[in-house]
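ERR on first pass: missing label on line 2. Operator R.T. fixed the label and resubmitted. Corrected input:
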Amino acid sequence: MSVLQQISPNVRNTKPSECTVLLRRSSQIKEELRRGVRRAYEKVIDVYWGDSHQTGVKPLSFVRQVLAACVYPELINSDKLPVDVKQRAQSLLRECARGSVGSCTAAAGVPEIVHRISEFIMKRDGGAPSYPENIYISPGSQWSLMNILKVLVNSEASPRTGVLTPVPCYPVTNLSITALGAVVVPYYLSEGQGQGWQLQVHELHQALESAKETCNPTALYVINPGNPSGHIQRRKSIQEVIQFASEKRLFLLADEVYQDCIHGEKSEFVSYKRVLAEMGPPFSDTVELASFHSVSKGIMGECGLRSGYVELVNVDPAVMKHIHILFSKDGCAPVLGQIALDLMMNPPQPGDPSHPLYHMETQHIRTTWVHNVKRVCEVINSLPGFCCQPTEGGSFLLPRLYLPPKAIQKAQEVGMQPDMFYCVKLLEEAGVLVSPGCEYGQKPGTHYIRFCITTPEDIREEFLKRLTSFHVQFMKDFS
Amino acid sequence: MSQEAVNGVPSRGKVLTMDNMNPNLKRIEYAVRGVLVQRAMQIEKELNEGVKKPFKEVIKANIGDAHAMGQKPITFFRQVLALCMYPELLDDNMFPEDAKKRARRILKACGGQSIGAYSASQGIECIRQDVAHYIERRDGGIPSNPDNIYLSTGASDAIVTMLKLLVCGEGRDRTGVMISIPQYPLYSATLAELGAVQISYYLDEENCWSLDVKELRRALNAARQHCNPRVLCIINPGNPTGQVQSRQCIEDVIRFAKEEHLFLMADEVYQDNVYAEGCKFHSFKKVLFEMGPEYSSTMEMASFHSTSKCYMGECGFRGGYMEVINLDPEVKFQLTKLVSVRLCPPVPGQALLDLVVNPPQPSEPSYATFMKERTAVLAALAEKARLTEETFNTVPGITCNPVQGAMYTFPRITLPQKAIDKAKVCSTHANHHNLLTCLDHFMSKCICPQEEGQVPDMYYCIRLLEEEGICLVPGSGFGQRKGTFHFRMTILPPTEKLKVVLQKIRDFHLRFTQEFS
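pass 2 clean. output:
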């Protein structure tokens, strides 16, 4: 008998991704195509992940040049790279022990980089103070979110710790919560007609009410801009959430990794920290907040470097000491990722030799994404049984499917959620990989698909071509 | 927000307090980066600001960070990684062909041919295949399945993941995990965090820190009274002790683990760091398979490796992997779920690992330089290991076992009773958190009333830091037999500097002993 028959029930109880089968099939198909097996398409268009590089968006030249020079400092003495790249690399290497990116750094990150992060935050937030000692760099934002959750969740407590999370929600967060033995308390985002998704405080109240008997709600997790919903909270909404958290004594977890992905014309991202500061005492002095950011999204798109940070506000100093130990035990975040974070916050300025290219590349990326959203929404909204709300930010669109009853029935027969059924067929027949709404949670009877819109233009067009042709056929077949 | 507000208002009113935070976390200690290191950083800052001290620099011999101590990166690795970072350089004749070939292959396996794309959670497939081939070559042809390889963010990440998977049960049924004393405190910290029961087995200092199965049995039997022992962790070569287990010992451990139905976790991150005559690294997997199918087809095990140590010393890349053996498919499924929470390990670290397991071959242009660099690093470490042992053993009051492998020395120090008495810490908990406030007491030579947590070796290390600017880690951070004291020092500083450090510690020890005689 295996010694491992008994494993942690917290792990056992975490719901596996609905999409394991879909992803496995996608890998198989990609492998088959690589080997030359004939299919109706030559390549799978993979817009499942929020991973712009994977879809073909190029990394920023300045960022990669500096990283390369940091990895192989001989480049600094060569003539291969622009002057400002070399200077930046030199100055960054001076901040690494013995000038090597292979050295460990302080647990929270290279102190000078952490300091510059606090400066970035202050600038972003109109001067609201940010203190380096409250910032921790980690291998991706989810890593530091997990650490903060570890502090909040007492897996042996009864009743168990509850964390409010949105529906729909990025599933990794829910997985992390249940893996720690805490309870996910869902609050529904509202899909307004033609207005996109919104966070309404009465839903927070409702969620809290429903949780009363089952757990001890301790934290409130918000994603802004939303994933997969793509909404951006207005100041007023953020204030209401802060007031709610204060009143109901909840620790606020603000996942803001998409803050650089704004494509709505009149949309503006304002951070939870800023709003909190502007609300003044007592809120600004008391509401406990953890804000998260990352290099994985936006124009950087450097998911593979694994780098993000958490900024903690109003956390008890005695608790901070333990948070520090937790991060210390993890070892430092990958140094190249820390450097990428620094470059994200301190890009080339007008007048720098690298600025023209940097400006051109970032402009191109941003305008492409704005066009992507417009164009894809237009096309989807022209198709029967398909409706795409306008989004203001984030990396995804989440159009709603109005599936014919026959399709829903067929899905039930094969034991799949209807939107999963749609996605499986879309993959097999059209070679397009998207994820189903059931992965994120949704109101019963509603169906969605989510896909990444931070793609190059040609991928977008090919995607639309295949999706349109598949969808029209699908609706016909099941009418 | 006021500074005070950002740093926290009084506990009253806070949602998250010491009273309701995860109680397990309050028990975590991690001395390697603890309060002493923070004090060392503070002193460095003061030196930079021009404050006068009895020394010109702080030598941080506390952490196994080779590059920070001047070890040079391996040229070939950095060339390939630079090419992966900025593929435009592939057109440049600054880089050798074999480096370009490796880079192209790695990039082809990345999403969108970018090292910035997510990889599969388990790691890039062709890299896992390369790791499997490396293991096969290392272990004399014993097959390794890439599906059993999980790339990770350093070995630590994989170790913690495995422990998360294994720890369960309540009360008397709570999982017990066997770990050596002394040990690398990641293990004790993680066990505290998970609320697991730590089952300590003592390594034998009189016998070069060897492991005796009798001691394993003693520890296990005692533990069975209050927990459910399920895991045996072993670090080979050892940290902090540097001992390299003999093949016989490894066989005995495997036999013991099988008899007692324990999951084996073999931490082998120092597998290339073997120096002593007559010592050789034997992987647990190899020995397991050579013991025949009775063992190899049933024994459940995980081995861990990393890019942070050996001759590469690339801590900052956070590359690593684990290989799991004979895991129940149902359990593997659970493991895969857990691993997905991390999304994926850092891709540059995965790329680096690929180069470590797939280094230049004799026929390739970079081979000569690569071998020269690798040999130089390992030879220097071997020399430093010998020098350290030799020097410390000339100091009355310091006894040092041979540094057979790894990167550290863990000598035993004899402290005068007066020093031990002096070192009473007025701390309400043993993890030295209030240490900085007590430093004043230490420095002013007053005696604090005795509370819990006598840490004489911490006091020794504080004095050494303040007087000589050398930062070590006290033995209490790793565990030691009651009444004995040690410190852990890395052997990483360049030889000339190491000689100076050893001299200074020697002089300090003699002074210290004199002061408290």
